[in-house]
Amino acid sequence: MRIDELFDQPQPIQWERKGQGPISAKFTVDDVTFKMVFFKGVDGFGNIEWTVTFGLIGRSHYYNARKDPGSTSRDFKHKAVLVFSTVLNAIDEFFKQEKPKVLYLAASSDRQDKMYDRLVKYISSVKPEYHIVKKYDHPVGGGYYEITK
């Protein structure tokens, strides 16, 4: 199987929303569970804005797969592509359901920053009505994006 074919195979997502609280999307790749949380807020002018966070629940050695003697570089790429494909799918579903006017992404590490760089390229290609601005690059890792309609 080619890596680009994996983008057509996102993992199942468990969505959860309690009342008007945040929306969470959880999915699992192998034995690692990932969670995205979409927080709804209001700016100083009364406009609704969303912030999304992305995290890992479970075995942290997932990101050190290249150091795992039972893992190969190919395995790591396969897992990373499945994670990214599922994140793309979750973002797409969120846009379809909530139709946000403002969405913020804040990376907390260099790795997350690189993922968000690719993610915003995807968003701009499939959602041309949105304007994406990278607000800053943090010297310790992590950029901050504003996606507006």
Write the layout of secondary structure elements.
Layout: H1 3-6, E1 14-17, E2 23-29, E3 32-42, E4 48-58, H2 73-98, E5 102-106, H3 110-126, E6 131-137, E7 143-148
Parallel strand pairs: 4-5
Antiparallel strand pairs: 1-2, 2-3, 3-4, 5-7, 6-7
What features would you describe in this structure?
With 149 residues, the protein is an alpha+beta fold. It has 3 helices and 7 strands. Helix 2 (73-98) crosses helix 3. The longest helix has 26 residues, at 73-98. The protein is globular and about 45 Å long. The chain starts with a helix and ends with a strand.
Summary tags:
149 residues; single chain; globular
Return the average pLDDT rounded to an integer: 78
Report the order of strands and helices: HEEEEHEHEE
Q: Report Rg.
A: 16 Å
Percent in helix: 25-40%
Query: How many beta strands in the DSSP annotation?
Result: 7
Note poorly predicted spans: 60-76
- Biggest sheet strand line-up: 1-2-3-4-5-7-6
Our count of domains comes out at: 1
Counting helices, strands and paired strands, the structural category is alpha+beta
Strand content: 25-35%
What distance separates the N and C termini? 37 Å
Offer a concise description of the structure.
The chain has three helices and seven strands; from the N terminus they run αββββαβαββ. With 149 residues, the chain is of the alpha+beta class.
